[in-house]
Sequence to fold (624 residues):
Amino acid sequence: MPLIVSFETLPQLYSQLISKYQFSDKVAFARKKNPGESYSPITWDETQKDVKALASYLLDMGVKKGDRIAILSENRYEWVVTDLAIQLLGAINVSLYTTLPPKQCEFILNDSESKFFFVSTTLQLKKAVEIFEGCPALKKIIAYDTPTTPQLLEHDFISLFDPILTEGSKTEQVNQKALEERANSVQPEDVATLIYTSGTTGNPKGAMLTHANICSNVKAAHLSISISESDRTLSFLPLCHSFERTGGYYAMIAGGAEIFYAESVDTVARNMTEANPTIVVSVPRLFEKIYNTITKSVEEGSSVKKSIFHWALSVGEKYSSGKRGITSIKKSLADKLVFDKLKQKTGGRIRFFVSGGAALPPDIGKFFQNAGLPILEGYGLTETSPVMNVNRMGEQRMGTVGPVVDGVTVGIQRLSDNQIIAQLSGSDGPSTLTSESGEILCKGPNVMKGYWKNEEATREMIDQDGWLHTGDVGRFVDGRLQITDRIKHMIVNAGGKNIYPGPIEDLFKTSKWVNQIMIVGEAQNFMAALIVPDMDSLSAFAKENQLSMTPMDAFLSHPSVQQIFHKVIREFSTELASHEKVRDFRLIADEFTVENGDMTPTMKLKRRIIEKKYAALIANIFAE
Fold:
């Protein structure tokens, strides 16, 4: 789908959109002002008014080109207004995850020498107040919400968002020429944002993404995926992550799509039925939860319900593989009996989902494809702005992340001797490249400028030939990239065999009994698993068998519960090689979450932290 505007920088993207939609009722964004209310649309004219007011205020406050301005907020309209104002001034957006503790926020603010700090809720404002004195470069904190703790406003370094918009609107006419000059001065190679990686060890590093990095990636995304003015997305992945920033924000507005903001990650299911999106950008965790809810409901239903469900899936598989004709009639019936109900739960208008941030289990991707809700799986890193590969609509290959996007080159480097054994560019067609696996490398206009004030880390990531080393292992399959796992996640067993846990975990995630799983077994004679059970399934089992779930430890140790998971382990391990088979397990009551530090903001397991947390439990497995 061709872009509706032309641009080389983010200020150009914004100004082109404003010109295109000026004096129209074109909706840009939508939000819920209060829980329980309907979505309130916001036009591009309204957005321009707010962005100009904020940019004028920041100009009056002395913000210079290249200054860093930090945001600590959930996804919301104010976040976008702040970002666009920052970009117009040629300043740099420093993005922070709302889950970060105060000390990590303080490190990022000091490392970036941020001068202004925009925060959302009372909780985030309290963090900002706690660290303000320890951040000498910081001039002011600006809160989006009026705090529920009024005494916080007694600090003279705190201002509220709405009053500063009013203040800025008074000088925007005076500042009009200066604002235009500042926006026009922004060059493609200027840094647009610092995105700090959420590393599991050491301090986070700030990836410097330029306007050229982001804009080239937006254009490449549009050549791979259709986004138009008739589209609408529901935004809930963190905007401070490059996946949502490029895919769910900049690429959406560049195509004229509307962006509706979810109230929170917990309300996504409800908000989808209210926002009725056509495209949803997500991580696999959402699809895993939907899949497990549906399959669990089917398994607990009657034999007739099961038969109809599996018949509908087989019809969907034939239809999606191109076998139409008489199948089209059956597909209409399958939709009516089964799939339309699922589609209504996603808002009823989904054209496709986009999945990234972690590997999508192939069985789950296949299920959604057969249901008529295709998932386009992609791949990339924060440091690559982020898209390197993505599947195209109608050409999806389950188990791969698709072809390389336009303008980008992906290489495979053999792990044993560091030789590049294959490389493919986005402009190349299907290839008969070697299927040998190795580390995935990347070159192209999407590769970051480097890490902020950290040349050593930059040299470790980008070699002398300009290849960025992803740390992931993969191979080419018919011109598409297939990810094996992370190099650092590789388990070497006692026999010296290399085992990648990701594909094994993906296999087990399709069980209705398994909520989350992490494979362990470094230097051991066999593989084992830490399993977070699906509590809904166990609760139904407990009720049926008159078992008490309290205390939870005793319930999870009950022989009948243990028997369930021994059966799951046996059944799923039959598909694995001998050295990959899971021989034992331990059940964990507490879910792995972002909040408890067990997962990254994009829902990836922090393996080292989990291994340390459950070290005694893991040792117990192998001691026996």
User: Anything to note?
Assistant: The mean pLDDT is 93. The longest helix spans residues 326-345. The longest strand covers residues 468-477. The chain has 21 helices and 26 strands.
